[in-house]
Structure prediction request, 97 residues.
Amino acid sequence: MTSANITGLILGLVLGLMILLFIFRIVLSWYPQVDLNRLPFNLIAWPTEPFLIPMRKLVQPIGGVDITPIVWVGIFSLLREILLGQQGLLTMMSRYG
Prediction:
């Protein structure tokens, strides 16, 4: 296995995990009574909150709905496709480099 393959595997797992955490965060936003400082919900809140805080300063809520987790799902999905998709940068490097 080349270093590009290992890097792609690790990066794919990390990006996939972040997408999954943000999707869980979106679902949790439907239940405002959930305390994000208690287990198991803090396992979702702690890794995602550092991304959400600065994004909330840039993207205002629409109709009272915080859309920043949706924005991050889009960003991480785009990154995953650009780097690891069928014609992604790391995919092409592992084939031809």
User: Anything to note?
Assistant: The mean pLDDT is 91. Residues 3-96 form one domain. Residues 3-28 form the longest helix (26 residues). The helical segments are 3-28, 42-58, 68-84, 89-96.
